[in-house]
Amino acid sequence: MTKRKFLIILLLCLFLTIPAVGVNQGETVYVIQIQGEINPAVHQYLKSSLERVNADPKARAVIIEIDTLGGLIKSAEEISKTIANEDLHTISYVNTKAESAGVLITISADHIAMAPGGTIGSAEPIPNTEKTLSYWAGELRTMAQEKGRDEELVVAMADVSIEIPGVVERGRLLNLTTREASELNFLDVVATDYEEILEKLGVDYENIILLEVPNRVRLAQFLTSSYITPILLTLGFIGLLVELFTPGFGVGGTVGLVAFGLYFGGSILAGYAGGGIVIIFLIGIALLTIEAFAPGFGVAGLGGLLAIAASIVFAANSIVTAITSLVIAFILTIVAAILLLKYGPRLRFFDKVVLGAEEKAELGYTSNYSRYNEFVGEVGIVKTFLRPAGTIEVNGELLDVVSEGDYIESGTTVKIIKVEGRRIIVRKID
Q1: Average per-residue pLDDT in the chain?
Q2: Which of 195, 240, 319, 414 sits at a 20 to 30 Å CA gap from 368?
Q3: Whether the Cβ atoms of residue 420 and residue 410 lie closer than 8 Å to each other
Q4: CA torsion, points 137, 156, 149, 82, in degrees to nearest 10?
Q5: What is the predicted pLDDT for the residue at 218?
Q6: In DSSP terms, which residues pair with 29 in a beta bridge?
Q7: Distance (Å, rounded) from C-alpha 267 to C-alpha 227?
Q8: Nearest-angstrom CA–CA distance, 47 and 79
Q9: 100-104, 125-129, 231-235, 378-382: which is most confident
Q10: Does domain 25-213 have CATH number 3.90.226.10?
């Protein structure tokens, strides 16, 4: 190879590696979707997405597509600050609705776009105490001032005491449709898609990249939703209830643990709870297990119930949500318990608990239960705790008996009052 050819090849290589001068480097617009309940998982998703966007030298703008009924105030504040501090051109796109915490997120961007038929507002905090409302209204007002929005309109979305003539009367929360928001100059663009937004705002671009919402975020939002949480808790309590009626560890215990596992797993994914909350729950289960082998209902049982209830409350996104879910779960569990006691013996599943087969004489079975009739009126001592079934000792003989329904501690004196087939029924003697 001649020196001339070598120099030509070298120059070509250098030319290809040098970035072109004058070519538009800001040609990509990214879309980040914020949908469903606002929680810590959504904030982490937004942060990681923006880090990815900022790593692209061709990123020109970011569209934050919003469709939410709200969520945690703390998470909304963190998302708001993240968007407000972003150096790239940010555009909030309310596609359907931006309610409650979604209001603060929406006004944090440089521009606001709304789809036809969308709504924004109804940002009253829960619980709506004077202190909470004052703090939340201050956050909304501050962000509105920073972004040049009408602060009175924003605060009226959270405070029913705000009256704006011709817009909202005192005692009602402000909630604007797309048309109303446009007439009040609250938004910048009304558009049906990303392309129309960018065209009306005069943003030059070559590509639009939609960032996918991670499955863990979707799963966290699903498991912690106000509709699924009571179902999981109900299945958990019913599973434990069934386990009490069945010998060994079976379907009831498995269903209960899976349901509680999904409840706490969703809370951990959403950022509501950590490993410590799960430990409190397991301590509660352990205390109830101890109570199952101890007479009466004492400190262990009470402590177990309190630990389980506390872990459920701590793992929820709010105390109101947790208490509501617990009340619903307890009511449904009580109904399930009544149905199980009434119709359970008729179900094939309960053959594991109650022997349903008939031991007929023609099949070769013989019975010695008739001799138990001679024990009627006899007095014995309880040897194993009656719950209500257990064992007593009568004249040196151990008998399997059942009380009239009361729990009777070991060492208590009882009297056999009647025999019904294979059942020996006893009553406590005071």
Answers
A1: 81
A2: 414
A3: no
A4: 40
A5: 81
A6: 61, 208
A7: 14
A8: 8
A9: 100-104
A10: yes
Quote the pTM value. Answer: 0.65
Helix (H) or strand (E) holding 68: strand 59-68
pLDDT tens per residue across span 106-157: 999 999 999 999 999 999 987 788 888 999 999 999 999 999 999 999 999 9
Write the CA distances from 285 to 43, 237, 332, integer angstroms: 33, 11, 20
Mean pLDDT, residues 86-90: 93
* C-alpha dist (Å) from residue 385 to 291, 327, 352: 12, 32, 22
Pairing of strands 207-211, 423-428: unpaired
Phi and psi at residue 174, to the nearest 5°: -80, 130
What type of residue is 409?
Answer: E
pLDDT in tens, 31-85: 999 988 888 888 888 999 999 999 999 999 999 999 999 888 888 999 999 999 9
Q: How distant, in Å, are the alpha carbons of 239, 391, 422, 425, 429 from that of 403?
A: 26, 10, 14, 6, 12
| Intra-chain end-to-end CA distance of the chain, in Å | 115
Secondary structure (3-state) at 402? strand
Domain with CATH 3.90.226.10 in the chain: 25-213
- The C-alpha atoms of residue 198 and residue 205 are separated, in whole angstroms, by 8
Chain-centre distance for alpha carbon 320: 13
Could you tell me if 162 and 155 are in contact, meaning their C-beta atoms sit under 8 angstroms apart? yes
How much is the pLDDT for 12?
54
User: What pLDDT score does 327 carry?
Assistant: 87
Structure-token pair, residue 77: 């504040």
Nearest partner of 69 among 132, 122, 13, 146, judged by Cα: 122
**Portions of the chain given CATH number 2.40.50.140:** 361-428
Q: Is 359 exposed, middle or buried (0-12, 13-18, 19+ CB in 10 A)?
A: exposed
